[in-house]
Amino acid sequence: MAASDWWTRLREKLGGIPGIAVPARTDDAHVTQTSEALRALLDDTSIPAGVRGELTEDFAQIEALLDKLAAGELHIAVFGRVSVGKSALGNALLGRRAFETGVLHGTTKTRNAERWREVAGQGLHLIDTPGINELSGEERERLAFDVAAISDLVVFVVDGDMTQSELDALRTLGRTQRPLLLALNKADRYTADERERLLARLREHAAGLVRADDVIACAALPGEKIVVQVGADGGESETRTAQAPDVTALDVRVREIAEREGKTLAALNAGLFAGDLSDRVALRVAAARRDLAQRVIRNYCLAKGVAVALNPVPVADLLAAASLDVALVLHLGKVYGMPLTRSEAGTLIATICAQLAALMGAIWGVHLVSSALKGVSAGLTTVVTAGAQGALAWYATELVGRAAEKYLVQGKSWGEGGAKRAVADIVASLDRDSILREARAAILARLRGRQPAP
User: Fold this and answer.
1) Distance (Å, rounded) from C-alpha 205 to C-alpha 202?
2) Number of domains composing the chain
3) Which of 17, 36, 238, 358 has its CA 20 to 30 A from that of 284?
């Protein structure tokens, strides 16, 4: 797939980062715009310190990618199953023995990087990765995927028709949105007809992931050439001659890509990483806000439940509860970075309560009767009714808080279904009976704690 296609995906990815525009221009413009995107993400003061701390390694990677872009580097990962000759292929491309090779499976244990050459002002680096699917090699497999995910171009190496695990790995790499080359190593083991049929089969497997022209045959360590000579006396002698690696087609293809779109690919990789990190940051921030919001809602539920249970004045407890609901909504607005005025909070609560009343009129009726009962009995029945009424107040605040939270999460919007549907969904999602049991227990425990010692 051409880099322009990948760049389109990058623009879509970075389009979700506020304040960042990524036009499709020249290679240098791609690098400049992506560097600005990375720097904006690093300098984003709205990211909480806790979230930034949890993603320390990711932010360090952003710094490394900025340095890489500034230095004009293109990283090429050599990836594949154990014993397909990844390290040997890397050495053949380098023209020197830089990566360790051996007869045992899994000779490569860690990520190894070597500078290769300079093309179009960019320094090309080859990265040798541990083989996938090695027994007890889970750590190395994860490392290999991690390396591939932060590389600008991936050379996926096979030595025959693809196994299911190799095809799964290729599809996984395809989801990282990195450009892929598929190299058939050890091609010298096949006849010309066998090689062409195998390449056709590989192109069929890789359709939609690798361009047909990017499925390339090569031989990093060709077998020795054996020549049998017959002497004048009829005796035979055998001569073995080492053959030079045959990686020219792959070498040429990588050069072409680097010359035509190397800077764009480097910008693409960095931008995709930034986009993914931005998504992870957003999820962490949302999770942190949800956790804080739940603690805030619970605290207000408890405060309201206790206040309603303790107040012996008819209906006055409901007025106190209303003021706590306003405070809750104002607090939630700050949690979600969308401050509300008291008027806005009041309007929001009125909307929520109107929908709740339509859905749950009977509950509010019981609430009012309980409130009046406490006043008529001059407090004698408070012990009987306080827990139940306080639990209902708790539940009401839980509903108000959850509905307000949904409104704020959606950017001060009820969504397509409107307030009626949003509030109905909240009511349906909560287990009222379990909430009332929990609320009653918590309120009574708090009330007992307030009682003076005998």
Assistant:
1) 5
2) 2
3) 36
